[in-house]
Protein: 5-oxoprolinase
Organism: Maribellus luteus
Amino acid sequence: TLVDDEIPLNAGCLKPLRIVVPPGSMLNPAPPAAVVAGNVETSQHVVDALYAALGVMANAQGSMNNFTFGDATRQYYETICGGAGAIADADGASGVHTHMTNSRLTDPEILERRFPVRVETFALRPGSGGAGNKRGGDGVVRRIRFLAPMEAALLSTRREHAPQGLAGGD
């Protein structure tokens, strides 16, 4: 998405970039700064900012939606997909992970066999990708019912401020 397919491979394409990240910044924090989920949450925002600055792709879902649950004997962790940002000539893909991962969820049958849970819903959320000349991909709804006491947590971003579109899109 950064380079048009019609550009021939050349030395300029292979020259490394020098990236300067000042100590104490969000991307190079100093102790005791909190860094939990830095690889899964911060990386999403960095890539979205890069694509937006270059004007090649609208923001994706912007969060890995880190969901954990468990009890004293078992733990489960997953990242819940969303929608990819639109590009100039195409809508974004729906129900996918973007940027730093393309992880797969545990099949519902296996999850329900290993944990006292029922996956009640896992479906696209129609219209959630935003409006524009090209639409962002739709996110998902994932509803899990616990059949025994469990503790659960969700680490995510973009709940108060939606991902940004490009060229006037939402």
Notes: The chain has a mean pLDDT of 86.
